[in-house]
Design brief:
alpha+beta; twelve-stranded mixed sheet; four-stranded antiparallel sheet; 13 helices; globular
Length: 513
Amino acid sequence: MIRWLLVALLFVALTGSPAFVSAQAPGRPGGTFTMAIATAPPTLDWHASTARAVPVYVGMYVWEGLTALDENFLAQPMLADRWEVSADRLTWTFHLRRGVRFHNGKEMDSADVLASLNRWRQVSPRADALARVRQITAPDRFTVRFALSAPLAPLPLILAQEGASPVIHPREVIENVAAGRLTTYVGTGPYRLAQWVPDQQVVLERFPNYSARTDTKLGLAGRKVAYFDRIIFKSVPEAEVRLAGLRTGEFDAAAPLPQEYLAQLQRMEAVNPVIVKFDMKPVTFFSFADNSILKNVAMRKAVRAAFDMDEIMFAATGSKDFYELNHDIFFRFQALWSEVGKEVYNQNNPRQARQMARDAGYRGEPIRFVASATQFHHRRPAIMITEQLTAAGFNVHLDLRDWATVSRLQSDPTKWDMIYSRTVLYFPAEVDIIMNMGFDSAEMQKILDVVYRETDLARLRPAFDAFRREVLMEQIPWQLYGDMFALRGERAWIRNLQPIYTHPLWNVWFEGK
C-alpha cells in the first residue's frame, strides 16, 4: 500500500448521524431524495471542470473512473478489475471489468476508456498530472496499458481525483468534443441524468442495469446500491430557505448550512446535524498574468502580511467550533503535515504590509478581487479579506458574482488579481492544483518530480519541506487561511448516509418517511 495515504479516517468527527450503519446494511428501495444545495453545477463536463459542485451534485452518480478513493484515500478498483505495474515502474496495465453497461445499454470496453482518457488529456486543467504518460494503448478489448517516460507512483490516485476527473464516457459521445461542448451525458454510474436545469436543479433517476461491484468499501469506492428512485439536487442559494425546508420536511437534507445554525438544528425535531471535520481550505489564488499587479512577488508578500487569519476564518464559518488555524497545505492529521511555514502565517501586521507595498512600488492601483456572492462561506470571508487589505492601504475592488461566473473566470487570470476559492489535497500529487491559475517555477517542478516518483514518507517529507520554503513561503502562488469544517442537516428518516462532505447517496435509504 502507498504509505503516505494512510491518514485518519475521512469521516473523522461528526455530531449526530446515528443513522449511519455500514456500506452493506440492507436497505429499502423507493422514494425521491431531495437535497437543498447552495451551488448548482456550472457545467456537466466533469473532464474540464474543477468546480466541486460538478462531482458532488451530479458527476459521481452518473460517471465512474477506472479507480475510486475509499475512506482512507486509498485508490481502489472501480471500472478496472485490477492493475499491475512492471518492475521498472514504466508500464501500468489495467484490466477492465466485463459486463459494465453504459446508460445507453452499450457495454464499456477499452475503446471507450482510450477515447475518454485521450479527451481528458486535451481538455482537463489537470492534464499535466499525466505528463509522464507517453502513450495509452488497448492490447485487447478489456485491457488498457499506460507507457510512461518516467515513474508515476500516484497514477491510480490521479485516475480517481475529484476535480476535473478522468471519468469514462462512451467513445461515440466523447471523441472530438471540446471542453464545454459536451451535450450528451452518458456514464456507467448507479444513476442516470433525467434533467438538468442550470442554476436550478439536477434530477437523477436510478439506472436499473447498473453493474455494481461486490466488494465492501466506504468513501466513494466499492459496491453502490441505488435505493432511491430519484435524487433531486435543488439549488437554493438562501441559507435560511434551505433551513426552513429542512425543518418542514420539504428537503430531506440541506448542505452546506452556515455553521451558526448548529444550535437551531440541534433543537429541531426529527433532524440530525452533521459536522464534518475534514472539509475544505479557504484560499485566494493570485494572478500571474502580465496585467496583474500581483504578478510582483513583493506585492504578494505585502498582501500576506496584512491578514488576520482568525477574523477571516470566523467570517467563513461563524463559529470557532468550525475552524482551526493551520498554515499548512495539509490538515494536521494528514501524514505530510509540517511545522514549516508557520513563521509567515497569520502576521496580522497592516502597518508592515503598507510599508512593504510601498517598497514594492505600489501606488494605489486597483486590485481586482473576485468571489462568489451566492455562497456564504465565500462571500463573508471575501468581505473580511477586502476590509483587512483596505485597512492596510490596498485599493481592493471586490467583485461578487454568482459561482458559475466565478468558476468560468478562474480560467482567465487576466480578468482578476485575486480570486477566492476553496480546496483540499487528498494525496501529495494533488499539489499540482497550485498551477491551475498559471503559476509555475523550477522549484514547483522539483516537488512534482518527487511526488510522481516516490511513495516513501522518508523521502517525501524533506522534499515537501523544501517546497514549503522555496515555493509557498518565497514565491506565494496562493494564500491559505486555515481548515474549515462543514455543517449539514438531514432528516431522521435517512439511513446510512456517510458523514463525509461528498455525502454519497448510494447505499442510503428512507425508513419511516
